Amino acid sequence: MAKIKLSEISTLPPGKLEKDAIKTATAQIVYELDELQNLLYAQHKWSVLIVLQGMDASGKDGLIRDVLGQMNPLGVKVQPFKAPTEEEMDHDFLWRIHRYAPAKGMIQVFNRSHYEDVLVQRVHKWVDSDTIKARMKAINDFEKLLAEHNNTRILKFYLHVSRKEQAERLKERTEDPRKMWKYNDKDIEEAKLWKHYEKAYEDVFRNCNDIPWIIVPADQNWYKEYLVAKTLRDMLKGLKMKYPMLKR
Amino acid sequence: MAKIKLSEISTLPPGKLEKDAIKTATAQIVYELDELQNLLYAQHKWSVLIVLQGMDASGKDGLIRDVLGQMNPLGVKVQPFKAPTEEEMDHDFLWRIHRYAPAKGMIQVFNRSHYEDVLVQRVHKWVDSDTIKARMKAINDFEKLLAEHNNTRILKFYLHVSRKEQAERLKERTEDPRKMWKYNDKDIEEAKLWKHYEKAYEDVFRNCNDIPWIIVPADQNWYKEYLVAKTLRDMLKGLKMKYPMLKR
Q1: Of the candidates B44, B101, B141, which has its C-beta nearest A95's C-beta?
Q2: Which of A10, A47, A118, B136 has its CA 20 to 30 A from that of B86?
Q3: How many CB atoms are located within 10 Å of the residue A117 CB?
Q4: Which residues form the Polyphosphate kinase-2-related domain (chains A, B) (predicted)?
Q5: Close Cβ partners of B22 (under 8 Å, ≥ 6 residues apart)
């Protein structure tokens, strides 16, 4: 992937789009997704992995609720990845990830992912740069394993918010009683490392395998939801799935 | 690894060795292994993966019982891999393997392994040769992941028996009441595919990463046990492990 400067990419929807029209379009896409997911499950040939990354408050949880969570829960699983447990630390960093790889017919959403091991760990200098390089290579190999050996289609979304938008959302968490549960002192500390995270993400994008990252302008939820839903819909349609014939 | 012709490698111990002297040496090594394994567990830095492959009746089970099973079970785990379950088939072929990768401080024995997916599946032509090549690459990457990202030292043993010895052992299973439980019609069918398995193994050896296969002449149990125990002992000693200091 070519070099990307996040600061040069807009976090806003393209100017010509109208919010109401887009929201209607999204509703239609979500409706289509329901049928496509049913087909994916029934055909039992492909699997889908959706990787969600982004700064704190970039809207990952909301996206899961409002778009990905709308499909039949029988065929959709969501797995959040937080700081590794002691048991997980006793293994290579992909060990805990691999067990949640999607089975055939399934859509698996990673709320944060194996990329944290080349992001947060790098920003805090818990590992050296050689380790980061080696991990990046291991991640690229690992994703190829899923893609080539289990028909896994991988969508990697970076939810791209501005620093200003993030600050507002974090502030909201201190003020809105319905959002206070999300507040964490640590987020304020992490937010100060913005430039370091930006750099770490840019390196991830540049060093990634041929499964591309999709940068999602995410200051406006309606556009973020539309773009993710549309990307997923288009990918699933491209699989040209068919219901299996009756086995006799 | 250079090209290996299994039919040109002896399945017998080197001529100059004396069975009794070797058995005494093995007992001494097994004694040392006990202490080394304790150190491995206590230091909690390295992990060990022992991969056992070989034709049917090449003596994998006996080796596990008589050598590897002599260590403290707290720090040694054995995992057999048989035909994959339906759930496992819904994932990439390394998914079921990865969850049994050794944690830090542990010795993990694989009784058969991820290599079955490029052996039995190839011999029976369940997958095409491109898939075999892609799997071999994935295996090499996977082992590097364990080695580089979890300090896993991998020992890959091929228990090398002659076709004649195998035939005798399979026959014994039909005659010795203590061994009849091991008898399986399918083994006789598989034994007929000897040449195909030999070729598949030779390709595995040739296409392997820089973690070498160790060919163990295995017609004589006493020599097989000695060589495996000695290899493990030497590897563990080479780690120059130390008991951790008291943390204050």
Answers
A1: B101
A2: B136
A3: 24
A4: 17-239
A5: B13, B222, B223, B226
B4-19 burial, b at 16+ Cβ within 10 Å, e below that, comes to: bebeeeebebeeeeee
The beta strand positions in chain B, using DSSP E, are: 47-54, 76-80, 107-111, 152-160, 213-217
Quote the radius of gyration of chain B (alpha carbons, Å): 18
Amino acid letter for position A66: D
**What region, left, alpha or beta, does residue B76 occupy, with left being phi > 0 and alpha being psi -120 to 50 degrees?**
beta
Best mutation target among B43, B86, B95 (most A Cβ atoms within 10 Å) is: B95
Instruction: Say if the Cβ atoms of A103 and B94 lie within 8 Å.
Output: no
Chain A CB contacts of B101 under 8 Å are: 91-92, 95
Q: Which residue among B91, B98, B144 sits closest to A95, beta carbon to beta carbon? A: B98
- List pLDDT tens digits, range A205-240: 999 999 999 999 999 999 999 999 999 999 999 999
Interface check for A92 against chain B (CB to CB < 8 A): the answer is yes
Residue A149 to residue B92, Cβ atoms within 8 A: yes
**Could you report the per-residue pLDDT of B168-187, keeping only the tens digit for each?**
999 999 998 888 888 888 99
User: What topology is assigned to B19-238 in CATH?
Assistant: Rossmann fold (3.40.50)
- A146–B141 C-beta distance less than 8 A: no
